[in-house]
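Deviation from plan, reported transparently: zinc ion complex.
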Amino acid sequence: MTRRRKLFLACLSCRALVPRKVAEEAGRCPNCGSTDLTENWEGAIIILKEESELVGKLEYLKKPGRYAVEVGGE
Ligand SMILES: [Zn+2]
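Because the crystal trials were delayed, the predicted structure below was used instead.
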């Protein structure tokens, strides 16, 4: 089984996508502080501004940033 290295890791707590470099240096999610970061995520939602109609549509979409649609699982 080969798995492509992703450029971003996803936070299991808030679903924020964290650049690999940031994740490796900080060891935690810059958004919520969780240390549960995973490469196992699919799909990305990018919110550019606070007024985006996406904000609030899903529970974890609270502020601008990049988010994974699905995290965890095998
Ligand atoms: Zn987080």
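The chain has one domain: 8-71. We consider this an acceptable substitute for the interim report.
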